[in-house]
Amino acid sequence: MKRALIIVAAVLLLVVLAGAGVVLRSRDESTPVLQAFRAPVHVRAPAGVRIRVQVLNTTKTRGLARRATRLLRDRGFDVVELGTASPTIDTTIVLDLSGHPEWAASAAQVMAPAITRARPDSSRYLDVTVLIGSTWRPPTQPLDP
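RESULT FIELD:
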């Protein structure tokens, strides 16, 4: 009796796992929604250009501005300021302050999912401001010994 119950449970587990595999394989990986949640590894700041970036954490999660700063610097952006801001927002917003929408778009691709907005501001010594929203998830970090 006990052995039959174990066999039935194992068969049910295999059926569930096979069904999950079929569902995951059948998903279309090229949909814009799924692409927005993956930051392409090849996206970098344009070579030979210094893009000054301000990173502001609008969430209640501590350390996101520091993690975003590390990510953006690894991709060639010059993060000159980081901090916190309010109110809390859901979606990460990349503000184009200097009239270079392609720079803001590059930063938004690194910080995916993110949207860009033009907010010209000649009084600031910044090119782009990144407002980190609660839907942004930093990439995993290697374990430092």
